[in-house]
Here is the input.
Amino acid sequence: MQGDQKSEIMSEKPKLYYFDGRGKMEPIRWLLAAAGVEFEEEFLETREQYEKLLQDGSLLFQQVPMVEIDGMKMVQTRAILHYIAAKYNLCGKDLKERALIDTYVEGIADLMQFILMFPFLSPEDKEKQLATITEKATKRYFPVYEKVLKDHGQDFLVGNQFSWADIQLIEAILAVEEKSSSILAEFPQLQAFKARISNIPTIKKFLEPGSQRKPVPGDKYVETVRRVLQMYHEVKPN
Here is the structure.
């Protein structure tokens, strides 16, 4: 078993451990796919699988996502994303660009938190959350990125170079559009950005049917997360 584990850890392809759904792993999938990196996945479907990872010491803080990459078993979504972005030169050309990219990424993450929680809410709370998502997107977050693109007139958010921030923003745009199809009506710069980024070959491939991009979370995903993590109330996944 130890030999098998070592073989898996040293595998060339990163291996992702999570549920068969979006959750906190989806931005990691997006980032790897955009960088053109092939990856494998092991989906958690039973409590026993999760407990085995705990017993093996694979989950540092007893939660997923977990990614095996370059001989490491990485946890904590932000740490994983930062590592991948740095490894594939998606962090900008200097410290100032990196700070700007990180700022934009954190804003997107704040918005995506509302979407992450959505599948686990009651029908009544989903109605309220939908209104919140629309309000936050149109009044607080999307105007920032619209202004950035308009002010510098470049194709990408930072340094006229494809970065982690662009990947996270296209993911957020598409996720919010799934909740409100006309959300970009007042944002012409974001409409053009969406078209440009969606046509980058690695992104285009990830958006095609049959890719490892996960669909909108449904009841099966919610039930699996609750069962595996033994969460019996309306809570978000780790």
